[in-house]
Amino acid sequence: MRTALLVLGLLALLTGLVWIGQGTGVFPYPASSFMIRQTPWVYYGGALAIAGVLVLLLSRRM
User: Fold this and answer.
1) Dihedral angle, C-alpha 19, 24, 27, 31, nearest 10 °
2) What is the pLDDT, as a whole number, of residue 60?
3) Low-confidence ranges of the chain (pLDDT < 50)
4) Full domain range(s) for residue 28
């Protein structure tokens, strides 16, 4: 269970960071992505990254 939570937390954190990067235009790949420079994706990515950190903290307590 600990390993599954660790992997899930890492994936959520990395995905959230990519969404933040695309939403801000810092990571504009692929060029045809609908997420590039769209502010809502910055917020969605931030929420997902925070959730990933919380899951990582939870996995450490197990």
Assistant:
1) 90
2) 93
3) none
4) 2-61
pLDDT of the residue at 62: 84
- Say which residue the tokens 């990254």 belong to: 49
Contact 55, 12 (CB under 8 A): yes
Q: What is the pLDDT of residue 31?
A: 87
Structure token pair of residue 25: 């235009």
Phi, psi of 29 (to 5 degrees): -125, 140
How many CA atoms, within 13 angstroms, populate the side-chain half-sphere of residue 59?
16
Structural domains of the chain, count: 1
Q: Compute the Cα dihedral for 47, 49, 50, 54 and give only its sign.
A: positive
Give the predicted TM-score (pTM) of the model: 0.91
